[in-house]
Amino acid sequence: MQQRKLTVVLALSGLVAAGAAGVASAAEETELPVYGVKSSGLDQEQAQRLQRAFGLKDVQRSEAGVVSFADEQRFQYLPTVDKGQGKPDEDGNATTQTALDTEALKRIRTVPADEAAKRAQEGLRAAGVLPGNATPVAQYTTFELADPNGRTALTANLDTSVSYTFQLGGIPLEGEGANIRVSFDAQGVTAVSHAASTYDQVGTVKVNDLAYGTRLCQKYLGAGVKTEASYVYVAAALEDKADKVEPSFRCTGRTDEGGAPQAITLPAAVGAELPQPGPGEEPRPDGSGQFKAQSAGTQVGSEGTGNCAGLPNTVTNVNSFNSEAAGHGIARQFKWLDGNAWESDFKDPAFAGGNDTNWADNVDLTYWQGHGSGTGFFFTGCSNHNDTKLSNTEARWGQNDVEWMSLFTCLILEDVTGGQTWGQRWNQAFRGLHQINSFTTISYNSTNHGQKYGHYMWRSPFLWWNNPMKVRDAWAQASIDTQPASVRWATAGVYLPTTGQYGSYNDYFWGKGSVSPDYANTGWLWRITGLS
């Protein structure tokens, strides 16, 4: 398959040095409303009303008023059967065989989408916590099997989720502070997320027009991207205690070949300060320096392209993942950012320059953030060591160590790209790898997806709740928390049709629950996708 190339991306430092005001000189100005935060989050009484309205045994409420619930048995439940001890992994860790119960899977009955939307509306209204600017979008969480030819051999809906979109004065309101989601199975509600504020208009602000916004987005995302700019209000996480929201530009786009950058936001107000480049990374040691040995226990690694790829939040997000790992005593063996992030770190040594044995395939979990497509992910504008794209055809993961390849990028597991299904594109990557965690759609640049992902995987139990989530559930929940309703997260893994229908469906991170053995590639894959 022809490789997809993103053209060179202008680094933020170059943009700032050139002076974005030079672009602004050709802009026309208009005015848009500014909204003040009237109320933020739910108080204890509202949280209890929400709990009663949906018949939940408990909910968790943060100090900022974020309310959440996930049933530990029924959240994104996939029927499986414990088949006992499996072969120890390469580090001698005990493993558990898990088989798919296909007959039970076929018997799952989900709530129709329109009925789920109605139930969500009724429950939120009964609790008095449905903002007037919220609109429901209902979709199914889906499990499927793909055969070695990429054909779908089985598909089943696991649950029905209702996510909400928001508007202020006809303009979308997005962000962690605009997040309401309710999931249903046949028995009732399996999960609730509620992080929202109410607003009043408090004034107006002069903003640059969309033509200017498109040119500004183009400078950040690169000349090879067909960029679109639209107005958006960004609701910060409730913990940030923001008192107002002003208009921003939402930057999205596609390359001619179908690749996509992560969506970003830039301020739209006239004279607003643009994102500044952070401190530069110390140069990476030359290519002869390799990661030689692992420390005892489990390890993670992380890489990402930020300023040099026009992504203002990558460095903060990758660091948030690493901080979460450190807080739980999990060793971080490498962190390479911007120009220090190399394609060769993910490429199998069977291909020229490939060195994943010493990096991405030499830890238990690798976390990546940057631009992507259905056929790989990009280092364009940041590094060329020894290529600017890790192609799906160059990926052979799990031969050494890695169990979970977590790719916070766009479109990796999209249904079809260039005439090939997701299964056809990625089945050769599974050489002992347990899961690829990523998206079927574009994803939105985030400052703390990595922190939330790590938190849900590694958190410590308290009484009867707060247990660590399965890796795939942690990925889903982190995406639900940080991505708008248009984004679909996904997890894929190996399926063994003739060996008990075994697979790595229910993996926890090491030390947090059961983990499957390393399975040989069969050409068969499973995938679970859902709505953020």
What does the model show?
It contains ten helices and 27 strands. α3 packs antiparallel against α5 and α9 (449-458) runs antiparallel to α10. By secondary structure, the protein is α+β, with helices and mostly antiparallel strands. The protein has a domain at 297-531: 3-Layer(aba) Sandwich (Rossmann fold). A hairpin with a 2-residue loop joins β18 (372-373) and β19 (376-378). The strands form four sheets. It has a 20-stranded mixed β-sheet that branches. Strands 18-19-20 form a three-stranded antiparallel β-sheet, with no helix packed on it. Strands 4-5 form a two-stranded antiparallel sheet.
CATH second-level architecture of the domain at 297-531: 3-Layer(aba) Sandwich
CATH level 1 name of the domain at 297-531 = Alpha Beta
Distance, first to last CA: 30 Å
* Helical run tally: 10
Structural class: alpha+beta
Kindly state the number of beta strands: 27
As residue ranges, the low-confidence spans are 1-25, 287-295
Fraction of residues in helices? 10-25%
Mean pLDDT: 90
Main sheet makeup: 20 strands, mixed
Shape: globular
Offer a quick outline of the entry:
The protein is an alpha+beta fold.
Provide key terms for this protein.
532 residues, alpha+beta, 20-stranded mixed beta sheet, 10 helices, 27 strands, 33% strand, disordered N terminus
